Amino acid sequence: MPPAAEPVLIVALSARALARSAAAAGFAPIALDAFGDLDLRAVARAWRRIPWGADGQLRRDVLLAAARELAPPPIPLVVGSGFERAITTLEALARGRPFWGTPPARVRRLKDPFAFARLCRQLGLPHPEVRRTPPADPTGWLAKRRGGAGGGHVRPARRARTSTGLYFQRRAAGRPASVLVAGTGHAARALGFAWQRTQPGSFRFRGLLVPPRAPSGSARLFAMAERLAAAGGLCGLGSVDVLLDPPRLTVLELNPRPTAALEVYEEAMGAPGLFAAHVAACEGRLPSPLGLRRAAVSEIVPAPRALVLPPDFPWPDACRDLTPPGVVVPAGAPLCTLVVAADDAAGALAALETARQALYREIAAWARPACQRTTRSMEAERWKTGA
Q1: I need a labelling partner for 174 at 20 to 30 A (CA). Which of 6, 9, 58, 159 fits?
Q2: CA distances (Å), origin 200, targets 163, 182, 311
């Protein structure tokens, strides 16, 4: 008989992509997240849906109790999004077990916008000016929430309400992109490149486009990402977010955890495998740059109207993050994620449009309307989890 798969505890606001990659790498994922999507349940040895609040935080007491019950130490831990503002919870989760990820103390420094700005200055990397108080003239400035993710917290400074959780960043020009990096805590290697896609008219994360080849001039971008990840002490997979306005580039942040890009790269590779690369980097072995066979694209799809899906809803093959039946999904709230691939970027975007229309046809035929006023579904908050 083959040896039993090693269990691993995976915790994130949305754990499905990490759990899928872990299962493909031969691990037995035990997943705790906010959604309990159908395709998470299909790959996890055990799973539990953890309640969370409007502040984007998983309930600490429920989370820690579920971790002790389903995956007691010394089962290793891997985390995704959701801990940028919950470092003490991350420390409690990691206590007594191997933690395959960037140590919490380093995460705290990297997600402090002022400490991160100092690090960029020390490395000579271009980074927008940041300040703690609103500028006298808010033109050209953005307001951001400390530890925010997914872009839903970003808005023009003139529209921001006073809050102790905000800081202000000078707006920079360029097209949003990210570099996938792997780090050992001391050294780092750039593995791939992706364009970030945002919701029209906002900074909210919509999805990613991984081209088969990085754009010209990417060697400088990759070298910069490696320097930053190494200096920041990244362990495992993460991403460096940038704005590209050739020949200029501007560093925005370093995400010290696996992000939503993971499964889009795997789709472009034609096979999962990045969870194994994450573990290898945490153990001191840097993986090689990715060999991409094609382009891949993802998109968070909003519900076209308030609806409830039946148990036998026929999800098209491109769908991920499958909302369980019976959940009221308000109009405009995320329903699922589409992930498709093709030979080139144009083909991938065309395939994405085809997949989106196929999904909407199934919704029109199968989903029943729901009264949006009957619930304030937490699925609406999935916009905030993003990258």
Answers
A1: 159
A2: 26, 31, 32
**Tens-place pLDDT, residues 296-348:** 999 999 999 999 999 999 999 999 999 999 999 999 989 999 999 999 999 99
pLDDT, position 151 = 60
Q: Count other C-beta atoms under 10 Å from residue 200's C-beta.
A: 7
In this structure, what token pair is assigned to residue 378? 């937490």
Same domain, residue pair 319 and 264: no
Q: How far apart are CA 276 and CA 24, in angstroms?
A: 9
Amino acid making up residue 243: L
Structure tokens at 370: 């729901």
Secondary structure in 3-state letters for 270-336: CCCCHHHHHHHHHCCCCCCCCCCCCEEEEEEEECCCCEECCCCCCCCCCEECCCCCCCEECCCCEEE
For range 198-206, the mean pLDDT? 82
β-bridge partners, 343: none
Domain count of the fold of the chain? 4
Considering the chain, what percentage of its residues have pLDDT values greater than 90? Answer: 78
How far apart CA 384 and CA 387 sit, in angstroms, is 9
Residue 202 maps to which CATH number? 3.30.470.20
Domain that holds residue 189: 173-282
Q: Write the DSSP symbol of residue 112.
A: S
Q: 25 and 273 in contact (C-beta within 8 Å)?
A: yes
pLDDT tens per residue across span 131-157 = 999 998 989 999 998 876 666 667 787
Residue pair 351/359 in contact (Cβ under 8 Å)? The answer is no
Report the alpha-carbon angle 45-48-52, nearest 5: 150
